[in-house]
Amino acid sequence: QVQLVESGGGLVQPGGSLRLSCAASDSVFSIHVMGWYRQAPGNKRELVASITKDGSTNYADSVKGRFTISRDNAKNTVYLQMNSLQPEDTAVYYCNAKQGLWWSDYWGQGTQVTVSS
After folding, report:
1. Of 3, 60, 56, the residue nearest 36 (C-alpha)
2. Consecutive H or E run containing 13
3. Phi, psi dihedral angles at 30 (to 5 degrees)
4. By C-alpha distance, which of 91, 87, 84, 90 is closest to 68?
5. Of 2, 13, 45, 56, whose CB neighbour count within 10 A is largest?
């Protein structure tokens, strides 16, 4: 079972940038897909971006052109670079990994991102 540890959240002004990191306890090559989800108060958890083990990426329409997901295979780490942040990006961001024969879901503990002036 992979363990995921997120870091990099915080408070940023509108228009600012943050980079989230998700360190996996297993090689990222053993994971089918890694992704970032977010959940704002009163809302459902939603997919923000994902990256497959062959490097294919997918983004929510609301973040296309502003967020970039990437990975460092040597460090077993996935990143989410977030630019041009807006108040509506405020949420708890969770790292997710789908691993194993049944594509089981594993989650990090979450990191708070707050965009406010």
Report:
1. 60
2. none
3. -85, -5
4. 84
5. 2
